[in-house]
Amino acid sequence: RKEVEQDPGPFNVPEGATVAFNCTYSNSASQSFFWYRQDCRKEPKLLMSVYSSGNEDGRFTAQLNRASQYISLLIRDSKLSDSATYLCVVNPATNAGKSTFGDGTTLTVKP
Amino acid sequence: DTAVSQTPKYLVTQMGNDKSIKCEQNLGHDTMYWYKQDSKKFLKIMFSYNNKELIINETVPNRFSPKSPDKAHLNLHINSLELGDSAVYFCASSPTWGRDARTGELFFGEGSRLTVL
After folding, report:
1. Minimal Cα–Cα distance from A107 to chain B, Å?
2. Which of A34, A42, A101 sits opposite B43 (nearest CB)?
3. Confidence (pLDDT) at B57
4. Which of A75, B16, B21, B44 reaches 20 to 30 Å from A35, CA-CA?
5. SS3 assignment, position B85
């Protein structure tokens, strides 16, 4: 089993749709969680950190469920510019700073 | 005012050659990394340095040798290049572990696309 698993995708949605991505992780001692966004042929960039209480940033909402060991990302009112690959990232409870990336979920928003 | 910069951006070379990729960060971070993203877009950590000390060394062929002359620089040297080394190599940095509320956030360079012919 992979340490971090994401929905395989791809997700093709029309503009204005709501789309949700899930990510599960296997290490129950994982400490911090993130969603990154990677545009085609670009570097990954932090989209949101994910907190136990859940957090929202505009049209984006991230949730963490420690008991079930999954995190989610919800995108409301999707825009063409949301088309990208979304990477789930999990960090262990050590000082090593070893981030484990999911394999990514590709989202294409169509007009 | 680029935060994490890597050179070269593109590198095309023949099998068997030796090549280096350089990385520099001006964010004052203590930790730097090399990641490899293959043709299937999977992003895997290769090495991590904290204050010039190697702290993560994943299962990487010993043809790959990182070097950190100071905490702002982390270079990657690859000997005897093979076809399977073709990938995008990302350098990244992060704040000191344990001191930042968003500990572990990674700041990536733009990537170095290596093609081995």
Report:
1. 14
2. A101
3. 80
4. B21
5. helix
Query: pLDDT-based confidence at A25, cuts 50/70/90?
Result: very high
pLDDT at A81: 97
Nearest CA-CA partner of B30 in B56, B3, B48: B48
Extract the residue ranges of chain B whose pLDDT is less than 70: 1, 96-104
User: Could you report the per-residue pLDDT of A53-82, keeping only the tens digit for each?
Assistant: 889 999 999 999 999 999 999 999 999 999
Q: Looking at CA atoms only, how far is residue B17 from chain A in angstroms?
A: 25
Interchain pair A34, B104: CB under 8 A: yes
Strand-pair category, B31-37 with B43-50: antiparallel
Instruction: Say yes or no for a CB contact (<8 Å) between A49 and B110.
Output: no
Residue B46 with chain A: CB contacts under 8 Å? none
**Under an 8 A CB cutoff, do A42 and B111 touch?**
yes
Please enumerate in sequence order all residues whose Cβ is within 8 A of that of B63, keeping only pairs 6 or more positions apart, or say none.
Answer: B78, B79, B80, B81, B82
* B97 vs A36, A97, A103: nearest CB: A97
Q: Do B105 and A34 touch (CB under 8 A)?
A: yes
Q: What is the pLDDT of residue A18?
A: 97
Burial class (CB in 10 A: 0-12, 13-18, 19+), B84: exposed
- From start to end of chain A, where are the E strands? 4-6, 11-14, 19-25, 32-38, 45-50, 55-57, 60-65, 70-75, 84-91, 100-101, 105-110
